[in-house]
């Protein structure tokens, strides 16, 4: 069987899982898809748009509200400004959008929900009422609850500010920027600010009876960047592929990597952390594996986007119900798929660089033994992820740069003897020698003449 084609039994298993979630949680409709290598490897919709047996069936082209997944698009658009040299992440928000009371919050702090800005608006529940302008929102007034940088505090209002920043930087609405610079290049033609074409209405399901209540839907005005967008399984699958690294000409790969790093931990006292926030993206620790994406909720809708960083496999999901354990329930589909459809190992080929052979083998940092290996284009000292093990990339003749772990961003220099042979490795002042404390290798602090005793 072609390794890129899922086993039909996997599809049937996921179909049953999704159908059970729709039935057991009493959801009018659900739609979900698994993304691998930039395409939908499995997709399914269950239920009807109005929740009734005779209603119109949901399908994979049905629009749902994505809620706060909208924030990931706003964040990428802001990072494009940074990459273009038009702002710095350490800039105070006031530099770009004057007149608010967001204090000295930086762009990075707003992106990562570390600015201390109030979570919600001061007026009526913004998700169920028509929204006003940025000036009206600021005059309400918008305040900080905590000192900027102190802690994680999720803020919808903070993303309203970032949407205003985009509008002022480009001279057009935040959505016009997102549509032109992100949606169009990625072919996401069914992603809009209001429902178009076939779209699911939002419902509240009564907690004690099988009856429904329609949820209102309005233009959120200045708050729209926090959660306004509508989309489909197919469109959000393209965004999952983007999160997995298929950024094309939209964003530099290094910038995406910077965005999905855990910047601020969502700390709950007494519990181990399982979720952090990057620059616009949520980061989950799932049994030692890292997933990135975002959840979304608006009255009448729940949505999810998750991508396993190591494999690149992703999950997109929607339902048109206000509340319920939909997110945790549907997220297991990604784990089920990865367990049943493991990626085929790539064949090994001899493609190493023979010029680094004199750097490999045993080294000693003081009395500590370390092994240097060549893995692809990288020099690896120790085991990355264990102790101070790190990978290094060549940046010049005898110059390397740390890629992860303790030595991330730190320089490694090859020290050679007059005859060109390697004498030692100098890693941010740590001297690695072929024998422990080699007196011929200029060990910092020197080596006593009596030697080992």
From TrEMBL:
Domain Beta-lactamase-related residues, every copy: 15-324
InterPro entries xref list: AmpC-like (IPR050491), Beta-lactam-related (IPR001466), Beta-lactam/transpept-like (IPR012338), DUF7586 (IPR056008)
PANTHER family (UniProt xref): D-ALANYL-D-ALANINE CARBOXYPEPTIDASE, D-ALANYL-D-ALANINE-CARBOXYPEPTIDASE/ENDOPEPTIDASE AMPH
Ranges for domain DUF7586: 354-434
Protein name per UniProt: Beta-lactamase
Pfam families for the chain: Beta-lactamase, DUF7586
Taxonomy, superkingdom: Bacteria
Taxonomic path: Bacteria, Bacillati, Actinomycetota, Actinomycetes, Micrococcales
